[in-house]
Amino acid sequence: MKAGGQARNSTAGNETRSSFSSRLGYVLAVAGSAVGLGNIWRFPYLAAKYGGGIFLLVYLILMLTFGYALIMSETALGRMTRRSPVGAFQAFGKSWHFRLGGWVNAIIPMLIVPYYCVIGGWVTKYLFEYLRGSTIMLADDNYFHGFIAESFGAEFWFLLFSVAVVLVLLAGVKHGVERVSKVMMPLLVILAIFVAGYAMTRPGALEGVKYFLIPNFANFSWMTVVAAMGQMFFSLSIAMGILYTYGSYMKKDVDIEKSTFQVEAFDTGIAMLAGLMVIPAVFAFSGGDPDALKAGPSLMFITIPKVFASMGFGTGAGLMFFLLVFMAALTSAISLAESGVSTFEDQLGWSRKACTLLMGAIIIILGSASALGFGVLDFVAPLGMSLLDFFDFLTNSLMMPVAALSTCLLVTRVVGLKKITEEVELSSRFKQKQIYAFMIKYLAPIFIIIILLSSMASVLGWISM
Ligand code: PHE
Question: N or C: less crowded end of the chain, CB within 10 Å?
């Protein structure tokens, strides 16, 4: 076992990086950033839309093979170079390939955080309405669409959430927020178990449980695979440079493989719990109407309030739920924005404050477009999507496959499996070495290229998804 001190002093450049104190610390930090709106808001609506049980099955398979290989690679590369993505790629070469690989990874979080803050704003609005006791009003079928179509309101709550993110970064109280959120995370799990239990026992809900858990091949479409892969990237924070950065803070004696499995298990557990909260409720309260199942980004905001409106202490439960989701969204948004800020700091050499303000400006400009895309800007529909869906598609279905491919190529063509293995084995035996090698060399790149081509074909209207 290498001494912890080595990690603290080992530097690739001149800087000395601080590091996580233990595996538990590392797993908690990464899981804390992984668990967010991706699990609670995005996973249930995609699972509902793209086939239920069959989506879940495809997701689990992808996560255990593909997701595992990519997390291992990004973490090991980050720890090896002690750099964030742009620097990590350039540690191996200076040609444009390396620049491109690093930048694709680094730009993705900058494009995600603006629309992430729009959803954060929706959560904040619901939190506020539960505080005012508007439990019945929120459960109305048309409430949510009315709210997002009314541009001023959606923009206001988006700005409020974004300003909170930027202020936390400017005030340097990020760690304080993370500490609070670590206490709240277990509460979120407990409340989610309770709400899922309640939702699943409503009359008619069992059909929803079956729809979500039992794969039915009749519901399979190619889009199930594309959506499951995008979701895997989003939820596990893969292919967006984040894990390079986390890896760069990881000590050399932390077992990369074990921590990868723990993060995956935790993240997927929460996503499944959210699925069990939302999908059975669609069946109980909307009779499993296919239109309701395909509601998309609005699903959680339409369905969950019906659950609260139907139970005793619904206002208190709704308040608690949206408060906990708010904290999870806030910490994730902070860590996404932070990644943008540190890329700017490293690459532009500006002060931290200037870089934070630049990130804030990007959030406000792009995020406002997404927030207003359901109201005054609804005539802007790139590829026939709302602006929010467009940014989501652009990052998850087009850019992340490219970022993941660049990591695969960096590992197999430049760094070599041998060096990755050495890095992993600094702490422990690399148990799944053969599987890892097969994934990263063959399966992952081929699969990514197929996904990328089909996403592009759908953009060009050659196939419908
Ligand atoms: N994985 C987070 C989620 O599921 C999103 C995120 C990505 C957060 C990257 C931080 C960093 O919501």
Answer: N
pLDDT tens digits for range 194-203: 999 999 999 9
Question: Mind giving me the DSSP string for 95-139?
Answer: SHHHHHHHHHHHHHHHHHHHHHHHHHHHHHHHHHHHHTT-HHHHT
Instruction: Give yes or no for residue 36 CB within 6 A of ligand 1.
Output: yes
Taking the centre of ligand 1 as the mean of its atom positions, its distance from the CA of residue 127, in whole angstroms, is 21
Task: Indicate the average pLDDT of the chain.
Answer: 90
Q: Which residues of 351-389 are buried (b: 16+ CB within 10 A; e: fewer)?
A: eeeebbbbbbebbbebbbbbbbbbbebeeeeeeeebbbb
- What is the span of the domain harbouring residue 219? 2-7+22-459
Query: How much of the chain, in percent, has pLDDT values that exceed 70?
Result: 95
Residue 11 has pLDDT above 80, yes or no: no
pLDDT bin (cut points 50, 70, 90) of residue 379 is very high
Nearest Cα to Cα of residue 1 among 348, 291, 430, 427: 427
Q: Flag whether pLDDT at 289 surpasses 90.
A: no
User: Within 10 Å of residue 442's Cβ, how many Cβ atoms?
Assistant: 12
Domain for residue 368, yes or no? yes
Ligand 1: centre distance to CA 433 (Å): 27
Q: Are 165 and 130 in contact (CB under 8 A)?
A: no
Mutate to test the pocket of ligand 1, among 75, 234, 240, 324 (most ligand atoms within 8 A of CB): 234
In a domain, 12, yes or no: no
Buried b (16+ CB within 10 A) or exposed e, 398-434: bbbbbbbbbbbebbbeebeeeebeebbebbeebebee
d(CA 236, CA 261): 11
Q: Is the pLDDT of residue 409 over 90?
A: yes
First-to-last alpha carbon distance for the chain, in angstroms, is 50
- Residue 304 confidence class, pLDDT cut points 50, 70, 90: very high
Asked whether residue 105 is domain-assigned, the answer is yes
Report which of residues 19 and 257 the model is more confident about: 257
Across the range 149-162, mean pLDDT stands at 95
Q: How far apart are alpha carbons 374 and 430 in whole angstroms?
A: 49
Can you tell me whether residue 214 is helix, strand or coil?
coil
Token couple for 309: 């409106």
> How far is the C-alpha of 376 from the C-alpha of 378, rounded, in Å?
6
Ligand 1 in contact with 342 (CB < 6 A)? no
Closest CA to 129 of 361, 255, 308: 308
pTM, 2 dp: 0.91
- The domain that contains 278 carries what CATH number? 1.10.4160
16 belongs to a structural domain: no
